[in-house]
Structure formats: structure tokens, C-alpha cells
Amino acid sequence: QVQLVESGGGLVQAGGSRRLSCAASGSIGSIDAMAWYRQAPGKQRELVAALPSAGSTNYADSVKGRFTISRDNAKNTVYLQMNSLKSEDTGVYYCNARIFSSGWFRTYWGQGTQVTVSS
Predict the structure, then answer these.
(1) What is the pLDDT of residue 53?
(2) Alpha carbon 98 to chain centroid, angstroms
(3) Of 72, 83, 93, whose CA–CA distance to 9 is shortest?
(4) Which of 22, 32, 83, 109 has the greatest count of CB atoms below 10 A from its CB?
């Protein structure tokens, strides 16, 4: 059984910073891409940032220059450093990872962590 557990969400003032973490645990063979998505109230879930096991990162235009995705492969953890936060960054942030477990790759999702940016 593989689990992704996010942490670091909360209430932050506009212009502030927040760091999200997502740790994968369980029967993990290897981890390919890891990513962060978010879902604002009344909107569809959207990709915020993605980080493959090899290659360059990919960011949504709305967060370029403000957010940074990184990973610690030894800890099976992905991070999202969010700076210069805006009210439109408010939403539930979900961790996503493509993990090799029990013989094949599957995509897993975390339970989500709420980020609220007050203006």
C-alpha cells in the first residue's frame, strides 16, 4: 500500500511564503514524476508544478517565478516553496506521484492540504 501525505498548509497573508511537503510511504520500488496540483473553490483541479525523475521542471504560468518545486529522493518527498502568495493561490493543494509498486507504475494522490491566502 502506497500513501502520499501532504503537510504545510494553512492561513498566510498575501505576500507571504509557505512551504508544502509531501512524503510517499509504503511499498515503493521507485518514483518517477512528482507534482503539485491545486483546486480553488468552484474551479477544476489544475497543475501547479511538475518535476520528473530526470529533466526540467514545469510550472503553471500563474506561479512562475514565485513557486519552486523540489524533491528529496532519499526521503521520497516532494516540496513546494511558495513565495509572494496572492489571494488567487488559495485552494486545496494535492500531491501527485507516479510510483512503481507491486510490479507496475500507478499514479497516486494525496488527501490535499488547504492553503488560504488572506488579502
Answers:
(1) 81
(2) 13
(3) 93
(4) 22
